[in-house]
Design brief:
metal ion binding; metalloprotease; globular; 6-stranded antiparallel beta sheet; protease; 28 helices; 5 domains; metallopeptidase activity; alpha+beta
Length: about 950
């Protein structure tokens, strides 16, 4: 305690801190609160310390900020880590994986905030385009991915030092070539040292500067909590940021410091100042070293890859144990000849052409057009649109104030459309000519209809918010406090919903121009619908391999785009494949065109030329490793089993892995070309894109689809069905119980799932209300009070049109049976609490859920995701949240109790209830109660054992499904 008090006295003082306060008060009120709550913090340390932060004020008397701060810790102790021993640390992982990491300890970076030299170097070392280190290593089939730079953690970016690291994801072959990989890394560093002397091309810095600038300028708005946290960290003394750069000092590049880059490359990024870590399942996995084996590697079962031959590693002996996490590792001194080879490679030079190393190419995806696309004149932007107004209107001989919301503006007629509280709509002439850039605040007053109607602004929409309806009186406060039901905004005009701009068998494209966020970004989401995608595990596995190959083949292009904040992804889905392109709209379709052409080039008999030699086997290895690592966490395995029980067309990772045994490129192309032979596409183009841009997208997608002869699209009746098992009503739960896949995982996971039935708005709203009522008490009782598990939750589930509710417990101190019984007992006990619930409390839940459903989207990505889910599920209810809120207003407590009794209640009047339910238990291997009744599965047939249990459940349900819902 004495040492704690001493530490407090030495470092707890105002000059050593930063404080940021945000709140709904005036500046004077905020200042009063700050003085009240923080004036007791001492201005200087109570006790002196040789490590106290030094605050240095310059002698310049001008208004320019010239205060700096310096930490003396490095002066007293030097660098914190000893990297001079030239060792490699060999580590045993939990999962199937291979990674190589090289870390260098460099000087603290805070004083270099203007130039950010580590960002410049990491941009070059971590590049993935042609000529990059990654590209060269992928050609050798040694590496599948890399990352370079300084992390954001306190141990990586501190006032005393920084850790610059580069990590490679290796193939199994690459593990044997770790030293050669590092040698090529130092060759690249040698090339960078050469350019330190000759001079780097100026466009590299200019590209980086431009990218940093547009990324910062158009980044998504942070929540108040995130903003305060970000600003408080930026204002910390050791960052040395002047006040006028707190908002952008850590984001922008202000200058290029060639000397700082040279200093880092020549004096810090050297073999003698590095730490090398090699983690690989080639050395075994964590469960291989459990107590039945001890640390004697000779007793380990010989797994794939343990044939690795390396004299350095053969002399390692038994592994050491890291004391905190029990990780097994070896430490080997790297031979001096190897270190010397690396040093020679790092000498400033231009590498030979055979090395395939060069500086990055000029990036063609840097956006330069940030103009917002014009809206239709009859439904244009106007600063009043979506505002909540009060209008003074004559009623007989008197005048009264009525609330209304502005929903549209017709620029041709200078009229606004108002939606009144009773949902009546009326057009009004705007008397004043307001430009969109005109700014005003609540309480602004003006007139409509030749000054016959006076209006006052009550509330204005926030960025991302739609129509606002408020009253400008105490009722607004009651809504915020949850005592009043929130006002329901008017329906979204039809023109503001996604519009079907292409509707053919080949392409169905929805378009929506953004009006809320007003940023030069867009989202293009596509689903490629393929017949037979769910036919067998082979089709599922080939679909996954196709995704891996496409991602790998397009890395060099997609990386260039990602540097410019234009992202892309491809995934295998239940209907075929999902594609997403997002970011700045200017170059978005350029990227989409390149990737679509590569993806659709697989409609032939042979691998397309974009798949380089050796990449098929490398991607196949990556996918097999992914399958091997699937379901390693108890909670994830539990959710996966529950989902597979209710969706019979999902194939397990083990079944797909078995299907890939002996797969050849020709067999793969036979399967994948058959899947892609007839494809239909449905998409959503959303954001800063008008009708003209939508037409360009239609042409681009159609042209790509028609590039193969006979491309006519897939008839609707041949689209893969997404059936969901119809659970029979039982008095007892069907139970599936399996052990954890990871033998070292002591956690036990339990999910109790209740199926409700096909989607309809009333049931959907009732389920959400039940979840809202149960969420806090369920967590409070089982997690907080009874300490049942570290992860306790409940919530609604929506699976391709079938609704349900799930209760989850992850625990290391209770058995699976105890967890299941406790969930059942909670549901039974809570029935009385529902019955006794006061009407005021019930309405607080109703009001709270309504507020949640009416909350605005925080980003274009979030809104697009919501719309896209309606498309992928086939429901197309664009305003479903508003529909639910309208219905929610009429739901009674008795209706809620009746639904609870029917769907969840274990027994009624002493008789067990018939419910559609399922219990999944994944039982851990701990020493305590959590491992009770743990089943014993043959490790080699773990996946097939789970498949057998799931198939048994399907048979017990009679293989009955809910049929086609949408």
């Amino acid at each position: 305690m004495a040492e704690l008090r001493k530490f407090y006295n030495q470092y707890y003082y105002a000059k050593n801190m930063s404080l940021v306060v945000i709140g709904a008060y005036t500046l004077d009120e905020l200042q009063e609160h700050v003085v009240d709550y923080f004036s007791h913090v001492p201005g200087k340390p109570r006790e002196k310390s040789p490590l106290t932060m030094q605050h240095i004020s310059g002698t310049d008397t001008s208004s320019v900020w010239n205060e700096t701060h310096h930490s003396p810790i490095a002066d007293v102790f030097g660098m914190p880590f000893d990297f001079s021993s030239s060792c490699i640390y060999r580590t045993v992982p939990v999962k199937e994986r291979h990674t190589l990491s090289i870390a260098w300890q460099v000087m603290p970076l805070q004083s270099h905030w203007k130039s950010k030299p580590c960002d410049y170097i990491s941009h070059l070392l971590g590049h993935e385009a042609a000529g990059s280190l990654l590209s060269a290593l992928k050609t050798k089939s040694w590496v599948t991915g890399c990352y370079a730079g300084v992390g954001s953690g306190g141990h990586e970016d501190a006032s005393t030092h920084a850790l610059f690291s580069i990590s490679f994801s290796l193939s199994e072959e690459g593990v044997s070539h770790w030293a050669e990989i590092i040698s090529l890394l130092y060759s690249y560093i040698g090339m960078l040292r050469h350019y330190c002397v000759e001079g780097f091309p100026g466009w590299i810095y200019e590209e980086l500067r431009a990218i940093h600038e547009v990324s910062h300028k158009f980044e998504d708005e942070k929540s108040p909590e995130e903003f305060v946290e970000h600003l408080a960290e930026a204002a910390a003394p050791w960052y040395n940021l002047p006040p006028d750069r707190l908002l952008d000092g850590n984001s922008l590049l202000f200058e290029f410091d060639a000397n700082a880059v040279k200093n880092l490359l020549e004096n810090y990024l050297t073999p003698g100042n590095s730490r090398v870590d090699l983690m690989s399942s080639v050395f075994g996995r964590a469960h291989d070293y459990e107590e039945n084996h001890g640390d004697d590697a000779s007793k380990l079962p010989k797994t794939d890859g343990m044939h690795l031959k390396n004299e350095l590693f053969d002399s390692g002996g038994p592994p050491m144990t890291e004391p905190m996490f029990g990780t097994k590792f070896w430490c080997h001194e790297i031979p001096s000849a190897v270190v010397q080879e690396w040093s020679n490679a790092a000498v400033a030079h231009l590498p030979p052409d055979s090395s395939m190393l060069s500086l990055p190419p000029v990036n063609p995806f840097i956006p330069v057009d940030f103009e917002l696309k014009a809206l239709p004149a009859d439904d244009a932007h106007h600063p009043l649109v979506n505002c909540s107004l009060k209008l003074c209107i004559s009623v007989g001989k008197k005048k009264a104030w009525f609330p209304a919301t502005v929903t549209k503006f017709n620029g041709l007629k200078n009229q606004v459309l108002l939606s009144y509280e009773d949902e009546d709509e009326k057009w009004h002439l705007v008397d004043s000519i307001l430009q969109e850039h005109d700014s005003f605040e609540p309480d602004y007053e003006s007139t409509f209809d030749n000054k016959s109607i006076k209006f006052r602004i009550v509330a204005m929409p926030e960025v991302g918010e739609g129509a606002v309806l408020k009253y400008g009186d105490d009722s607004d406060f009651h809504v915020e406090s949850g005592t009043h039901f929130p006002p329901i905004p008017p329906p979204i005009p039809e023109s503001r919903l996604p519009q079907l701009v292409s509707n053919t068998q080949l392409l169905k494209l929805w378009h929506l121009q953004d009006r809320k966020f007003k940023r030069p970004i867009a989202e293009l989401r596509l689903k490629l619908v393929c017949a037979g995608i769910n036919r067998s595990p082979l089709e599922g596995a080939c679909a996954d391999l196709f995704v891996t190959l496409c991602s790998d083949a397009t890395t060099e292009v997609s990386y260039l785009a990602s540097v410019c904040e234009i992202g892309s992804s491809i995934s295998a889905t239940g209907f075929g494949f999902g594609l997403r392109f997002n970011g700045f709209d200017h170059k978005l379709l350029d990227l989409a065109k390149v990737l679509l052409n590569v993806i659709l080039s697989f409609r032939s008999d042979e691998l397309p030329p974009e798949v380089k030699p050796g990449r098929f086997d490398a991607c196949l290895e990556v996918l097999k490793r992914k399958y091997s690592n699937a379901g390693m966490k108890a909670s994830k395995l539990c959710s996966e089993i529950r989902l597979r029980c209710i969706r019979p067309t999902i194939w397990s990772s083990s079944a797909k892995a078995d299907a890939l045994v002996g797969i050849t490129p020709s067999k793969f192309m036979e399967v994948i070309s058959a899947l892609l032979k007839k494809v239909s596409v449905e998409g959503l183009y959303h954001g800063n894109v008008g009708p003209a841009e939508a037409e360009v997208a239609i042409s681009l997608i159609t042209e790509a689809l028609l590039s193969a002869p006979g491309s006519t699209g897939l008839p609707k009746k041949k689209h893969p069905s997404q059936f969901v098992i119809k659970m029979p009503r039982n008095q007892t739960h069907p139970i599936i119980s399996v052990p954890t896949k990871d033998l070292t995982d002591s956690n036990t996971a339990v999910e109790v799932y209740f199926q409700v039935g096909p989607d309809d708005v009333r049931k959907r709203t009732l389920i959400d209300l039940i979840a809202h009522v149960l969420d806090e008490p369920f967590y409070d009782q089982l997690r907080t009070k009874e300490q049942f598990g570290y992860d306790v939750s409940c919530g609604s589930r929506w699976t391709y049109g079938v609704m349900g509710m799930c209760f989850c417990v992850v625990t290391s101190c209770k058995s699976a049976n105890e967890s299941t019984e406790r969930i059942e007992r909670f549901l039974e006990e809570f029935r009385k609490e529902l019955e006794d619930m006061k009407d005021e409390t019930f309405m607080e839940h109703v009001n709270g859920l309504a507020k949640n459903k009416l909350q605005m989207f925080n980003s274009l990505e979030e809104e697009c995701g919501n719309l896209w889910s309606e498309i992928t599920e086939g429901r197309y209810q664009w305003d479903s949240e508003r529909q639910e809120v309208v219905l929610l207003k009429s739901i009674t407590k008795q209706e809620l109790i009746a639904a609870y009794d029917d769907w969840l209640l274990p027994q009624c009047n002493g008789t067990k209830n018939y419910r559609q339910s399922l219990v999944v238990k994944v039982i851990g291997s701990g020493d305590g109660p959590s491992s009770e009744d743990r089943p014993v599965f043959d490790a080699e047939h773990f996946g097939s054992e789970i498949d057998r249990h799931i198939t048994g459940f399907h048979k017990s349900a009679g293989q009955t499904t809910w049929g086609k819902i949408f």
